[in-house]
Design goal:
The complex is a heterodimer of chains A (519) and B (394). Chain A is of the alpha/beta class. Chain A contains 16 helices and 17 strands. Chain A has 3 domains: 228 residues, FAD/NAD(P)-binding domain, CATH 3.50.50.60; 140 residues, no CATH class; 118 residues. In chain A, strand 5 and strand 6 form a beta hairpin. Chain A is globular and about 65 Å long. Chain A starts with a strand and ends with a helix. With 394 residues, chain B is α+β, with helices and mostly antiparallel strands. Chain B folds into 3 domains: 143 residues, 2-Layer Sandwich (Gyrase A, domain 2); 81 residues, Aminomethyltransferase beta-barrel domains (Alpha-Beta Plaits, 2-Layer Sandwich); 83 residues, Beta Barrel (Elongation Factor Tu (Ef-tu), domain 3), CATH 2.40.30. Chain B is 18% helix and 34% strand. Chain B contains 8 helices and 19 strands. In chain B, the strands form 4 sheets. Chain B has a 6-stranded mixed sheet with strand order 10-11-12-9-3-13. A 6-stranded antiparallel β-barrel of chain B has the order 14-17-16-15-18-19. In chain B, strands 5-6-7-4-8 form a 5-stranded antiparallel sheet. In chain B, helix 2 crosses helix 7. The longest helix of chain B is centred in the middle third of the chain and has 11 residues. Chain B is globular, with a radius of gyration of 21 Å. The chains are: A alpha/beta (519), B alpha+beta (394). At the A-B interface, helix 11 of A face helix 3 of B.
Amino acid sequence: MTDYDAVIIGAGHNGLICASYLAKAGKKVLVVDGRAEPGGCASTREFAPGFSVSDCAQWLSQFDQSIVKDLDLGGTGLKLSEQKATISLQPDGDHLILAGDTISGAGIDSADQAAYRDFKNMVRTFAKLMTTLYRGRPPKLVEQNWTDRLTLMKLGLGLKLMGRERLQDLMRIALINIYDVMNEHFSNAALKSAIALDAITGTNMGPRSPNTVYSYLHRVTGEHLAQTGTTQVMGGMGALGQCLAAAAEKRGATLRLGSAVQAIVKTEDRVTGVTLASGETVSAKLVISSADPTTTFRDLLGYHQMEAGIAKRVEHYRTRSGTAKLHLALSALPAFNGLTAEQLKERLVIAPSMDGMETALNPMKYRELSQLHTFDISIPTIEDAGLAPDGQHVLSAIVHYVPYAPDVGWEAGKPQLLRQLLSELEAYAPGIGAQVSASELIVPSDLEASHGMTGGNWHHGELSIDQALMMRPFPGSTQYATAVDGLYLCGAGAHPGGSLQGLPGRNAAKEILKRGALS
Amino acid sequence: MSDISRDTMLLTTPFHSRVEAMCDLNDWGNWMGYTTPNAYFDVELEYFAIRSTTGVFDLSPMNKYRVTGPDAQRYLDRLITRDVTKIGVNRVGYAIWCDDNGQVIDDGTIFRLDDQDYRICSYQRADDWLAWNTLGFDVTIENESEAVAGLAIQGPTSCTVLTLLGCTDLNQLKPFGIAHYTFEGRPLMVSRTGFTGDLGYEVWIPPESAEALWDQLFELGRDYLIKPIGSHALELARIEAGFLQANVDFMPAEEIVRVGRSRSPFELGLEWLVDFNKPLFNGRSALLKERAKGSRYRFAMLDVEGNKPAEHSFILKGDQQVGTVTSAAWCPTAKANIAYAQIEMPHGAVGDQLVAEIYYQRELHWTRLLAPCKVIDAPIFKSPKRWQTPAPPH
């Protein structure tokens, strides 16, 4: 007799969603997490006295609607903002505004608008096909069974129905880079770099890196999965974490927070439970890890407990990240050149030209600090005043490109980088530096430490074709079951990968139930 | 290794000066990048030295890896398919290792030199695979291939010759045992191992003493008809004795380019080397699946009618082609025409009657021969001397 049917490592959104589905099916599930609050990357934290921020993910744009429905999240009091427009800030104050399929400003003319609509139609078609694949387990290409064959047939049919021209487009661009695709479709530099920014967010890639078309399409799947556009969660992302935790507990799952898993226990030839930091061992029929694959295999199970080929795969799995977070406590609402106060609630991005972005990537590759960065800015306090003291504000920005371990070291590097980032912001928001009463810079190694993500990669492994679909995280451990008996994956390191969408957790639970792995 | 006067593409072994002096035929081959003799003076006579007196084979090109550290045993236990804990100190074990798909990478011998001190002797270069295997283990792998020279000294008078060399009480050494001596102040390790199926030893020595060892062996062994042997003579002996050869009887899984060309232990008749009682070793999951599902091929030893070696033959069952031959030889001592074949399942069970399609040529005249053959259950050459302790006097 085991203590539980399943122990889920990590109370992030995927772990909690997986737990909810399993508990809903009557399974006895325990979710354990070393962090005191549920939600993982959907977390809110006070970073300065009175100032709170979504300290990892800050936008919700891909959360799958089928999960909202299945887990009845609509009735839990979770409040989202209206859809945000994206405003790409320009040095001259003539900003590019992307709202739905409409673009304006920054010298955009009717030809640009038509090209943009065509482009969006195209990528939406591709993303729709991906969405179908994302909502199920990835098909194996060899050793397939009927489910896999059916999935592949549907995929084939979907490709066929796109029509010859679209299919040619997909085949042509799928493996190239967003830089070339942007230059093919658009002439407006601001538009190119605004879209390119979406392709590199959360990755370790520049616009010219192969796979950036895939990572862009991954993001566009959100238009089909979430259908909400980019939104802000009221109360910070932590509210989503709390809501998912409540949903899991309501269905009978047990949560143990502040209780880190120290090791995955293997008895003879299968995984039989976990050991907690307290020394306590919890046994279960299955251990389902929402931790990233490297943490799961290398740190929790240990390479000595698996066949060498798996260890080799894990070592080759790419988890680097160039993503940092900047949190500023502001004494007043900042003023940005060319923006009204009303516009400050939107998603503000600073994307230098595509060549600038590529140039900014270079120092990072060689463990140096860059002189140029991209910003994806949220000022959540405009719509959600509770996050800061009265009249004061929080600015949260996702920043690229920041090295994992600069040669200069973070003790010296952080103040230097903070000064650099503030000076870059100052160019768009003169006087913002003087408004900063407290600041926090979260570099990739901080994200790794605080959220347990190897390399600080918030997709739990680079979003690239060689690590996607039937190859995520790596061959032999796909379809949520790993090459180690009794160990499953349900985190972003499993298909269909990163971002706050919840599908790995949902798909893993469905696959486990379908296989009868808990019967 | 020994000095060479000009740049050559092939390396030479520490015994090369002596080997070259005795290689009357000047018939050389390339064995894993080393210049080695195919034959010294006459393949058959060399072969009969192995069977009747003593044959000396330079096996220095074999790859030797030293495995040390607190996790050495656990490391090897996951690497190889058999239970390494059953190999005691100063004992040797024959072993195979597989990749995660349960396909054989290589076979070799594991020498246990001390508690957590082992040496792997392998046919293939294994640096990359052994290095990957260290992940998660506190273990050090050192490639000792060039630091250890080796000779196989095989045949009925081999124990006597080595005893004359100073290997006291060598006749007490059990099969797969290791004994340590000194030669010219340097360590000389002797293991009762070999590739000929008869009484025989392998000696391991620092390269600096290689030439002196060779000289003394041939000096002391003259009355015991010691002879150098080349790879062709050894090939005859190993086929007769039932030993597989990597790159001949199977393709190392790490070198396979085409899908489906590698083989599992089951498909090579080596399942006796696989211990499923171990909870973890490379290939275990895949091999468990194969055991349940069945294998694609079966390794078969064939006793072929007639005296034409069935080299590269197709194996037929009725009109159907069911397999191919990997090694074949007319075996002089057993007086049998032996072939090793990979036979598609379900054919090739012991006792199965098959046909070897043999092509041979005499004076540019090709003849096709359909030779009946039978699957036999054990090697045709069996020498009780191989297993006797004390080693029998000749």
